[in-house]
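Translate structure to sequence.
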């Protein structure tokens, strides 16, 4: 089984994807974390992320390692665990520019497809979340979900997460909403693999749903494919 979960920042993709992977015993891949790790590398190495040529020239130096256990997902660059650092505002502000570079996306998509093959062989399935999973990475996935919510709801959830983690100024909803809106615009308008709902993807609007309700709705789509024997 391969499940593609796409949607904008703060829509709940990670929570839903980890819950599904945990229930079914499958591997979990957060592709957004991979792009954030690339942005972290560029920021910490003094690369101007607005200079796409400079980013492209350094992308092959980014040595990523992912932990795909949904109960404890991790990501490292070289021997540095950046699981927390990639959520800081400096990386958040840089990631859209870095992820828009075609050379970055080409390399990451190749890594993501290899991970999907590995996890399918080792664990019987993979839940992969991001913005171009259904459109570019796992185009053949039998289950494609487009998870969304209005920007106000997403900002409130993301600010609460930041406050709990003590990052990004303690979770100011107004500034969080501004960053999410800017990210939405950048991700949906870029030339390379823009955020979009592909044909065959089922939209779940989580604005007025609890996490348990969203997980149940997503799992019903997965279970229908399993019951039909289409995987």
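Result:
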């Amino acid at each position: 089984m391969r499940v593609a979960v796409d949607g904008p920042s703060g829509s709940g993709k990670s929570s839903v994807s980890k819950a599904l992977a945990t229930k079914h015993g499958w591997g979990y891949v957060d592709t957004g974390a991979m792009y954030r790790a690339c942005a972290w590398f560029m920021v910490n190495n003094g690369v101007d992320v607005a200079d796409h040529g400079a980013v492209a020239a350094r992308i092959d130096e980014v040595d990523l390692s992912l932990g795909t256990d949904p109960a404890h997902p991790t990501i490292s660059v070289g021997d540095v665990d950046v699981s927390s650092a990639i959520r800081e505002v400096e990386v958040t502000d840089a990631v859209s520019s870095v992820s828009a570079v075609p050379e970055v996306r080409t390399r990451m998509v190749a890594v993501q497809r290899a991970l999907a093959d590995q996890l399918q062989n080792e664990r019987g399935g993979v839940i992969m979340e991001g913005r171009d999973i259904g459109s570019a990475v796992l185009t053949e996935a039998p289950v494609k979900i487009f998870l969304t919510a209005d920007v106000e709801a997403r900002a409130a959830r993301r600010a609460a997460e930041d406050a709990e983690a003590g990052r990004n100024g303690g979770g100011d909803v107004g500034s969080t909403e501004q960053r999410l809106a800017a990210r939405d615009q950048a991700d949906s308008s870029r030339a390379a693999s823009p955020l979009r709902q592909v044909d065959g993807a089922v939209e779940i609007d989580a604005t007025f749903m609890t996490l348990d309700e969203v997980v149940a709705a997503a799992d019903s789509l997965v279970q229908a494919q399993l019951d039909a024997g289409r995987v």
